[in-house]
Amino acid sequence: MEKERALAALAALSQGTRLDIHRLLVQAGPGGLPAGAIAARLGLASATLAFHLKDLKAARLATCTRRGRSLIYAAAYPTMNALLAYLTENCCGQGAGACLPGCTPDSATPAIPEQRSA
Predict the structure, then answer these.
(1) Which of 34, 37, 91, 100 is the most buried (most CB within 10 A)?
(2) Which of 69, 80, 72, 73 has its CA nearest to residue 103?
(3) Contact by Cβ (8 Å): 12, 56
């Protein structure tokens, strides 16, 4: 990852709501979540959610696909892992690859179940 892309990703994640959205998408797995489910889980208005998702997509930390009438957002694991690798590439003075973290979600991992109101 080049420095400018790392800075864009870090800038996107440096805002609390965007960090919450990204963490929720990472937890949801590669299947992602519909925009409405994200808004409901985090208590966000749709306009607010759209504003923050735009920044996450611009930083290539989230993807969006249409399924029928729903927009499904998912974490972009390759970008997230590239950022982690960039941040830790000289970890512990061991050189590239010595202690790189990473996330490889199981494609069979189910999305976070929808919360039901009591």
Answers:
(1) 37
(2) 80
(3) yes
